[in-house]
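Feature request disguised as a bug report, sorry. It would help if multi-protein outputs had a clear separator. Right now it looks like this:
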Amino acid sequence: MAVEVRAHITGTVWKILVAVGDDVAEEQTVAILESMKMEMPVEAPEGGKVASISASEGQAVDEGDLLLTLE
């Protein structure tokens, strides 16, 4: 079952820390968002393998936008 990792704030994707095919652990930081000069980590809600990445570094995102999918 796929798990969607979504932006929890409106901001800019500062860094994507994983690649498609990477295994990630629950609560592992998978991306960093920047908002108002603050860096906010985005953590995986559960462990899995990165199936797809829907955002790119430098992209503006709104709260709730899809960042990546785990399987």
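(second protein starts here, but nothing in the output says so)
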Amino acid sequence: MKKLGELLIEQGKLSERDVERTLLAQIEMGDLFGQVLVKLGLVSDRVAAVALSQQLDIPLLGSADFPKEPIHLANLAQDFLFSNNVVPVAVTDAGITFAASVPQDPFLDKALAIALDGTVFMALGLESDINRALQNPVKREGDQEDALDDDFSGQAEDDSIEHLKDLASEAPVMLGCPDADDVPAVVVLLCSYNGGRFLGQQLESIAEQEGVRVVVHVSDDGSQDQTPGILQAFRKRRGEELLSVVQGPRRGHVDNFFSLIFSKIEGDYFAYADQDDIWDSDKLSRAIGALSSLPADLPAIYCSRSRLIDVHGNDIGLSPLFSRPPGFANALIQNIGGGNTMVMNRKARNLLSAVGPVDVVTHDWWSYILVTGSGGTVIYDEHPSLRYRQHQNNLIGSSMSLGDKSKRYWSALRGRNRIWNTQNIAALQGVRSYLTIENQRILDNFDAARDKPLLRRLLNLWRSGVYAQSTLGNIELIAAVFFKKL
């Protein structure tokens, strides 16, 4: 089977350079290759869909191919259809045909066949067409208590955006609670974008946190799936004081998280959240227990190891265990703390907010870099605090398999890490005054290890003291300096 990029090159829609750019962006964005192409503006969603249908050898359905009246199947819950972005479009003696935005998902095909106990045919549909088809029955089924509000989940995209704005104006920005001053107040910063498949489980695990007061502050970056409806239903069920929603900037996940970090929200602690994990019930209380032992005027971040799970929630392993201490000399070349595990004190959040928007690779890596660079502390907990879901829309993943590691090393040799380092160094030089004198020296030596003659590069690497967490990582570091890929 030809790759999607190869097909588009043959059709004159892409150049080889476009494919290389997309592969690098895919590692950062964590989306499917075709989705990244569309987000980068290299092809339209329809061009990408036509090529995907050719690659998979399945039909591409347009809006005219969807039935005017929704097809109701007794053994399939509406939540399942929403979560998997799939809708039935035809029922014949031979079987049932479904349109899906990700028809290549083997779990989906198998689950449908088992649920219906029959033959299933898969077709490709544009996500917008599928969502419109799924919203029809919600509109007609009306005012059941368990259904999503009609004024939210059944609206057109523009109306949903306006509703998010309305929610933003109602959103609580303070965590005041006079009778619970002794309970730590935690602001959870969650960025959503078409994450409806697993968002419900993520929200419930946050709501079930023990020993803390939580407010979930969501920035939605223009979701076109069932995400807005899930957020509204959760808000109704759990209480308006627990969840607030604002419209995101729609410039990617980094700017989306920054929009939350810089917003006027007050709390004792701040935690990043993805939209597809499951938190341990003591995740936040453990983090606060560690952070509260440090001086309040010291910027500090807690992060931890993760348990890896598949799309069904089954355990499949653990994230890497890091044994060397966190620090700025390590942060310059790698991030040991996944953002989904990070909890920071007020001083760290205020530091990030004071520095303001920067052009960096990821928000969590920048948090590690800036906090340690300013003389703050990062606590790494070797005991996992959450279940980190691995799935095809989360392509960054944990890089635990041999294939993942090979892909990562190949990307590094092709210059990915050098691009990232250039981006982060430029951001650091722009906020140099926030770094300690010693860390300014480390930064300068690290920068000099990238472009000087070979012996000078190696000498400056040694002077910088920069280190990776593993022996293999340090060998890669030296190789990167040798081949000028640092």
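Even a blank line would do. Unrelated, but nice: The chain has three domains: 4-134, 152-389, 402-482.
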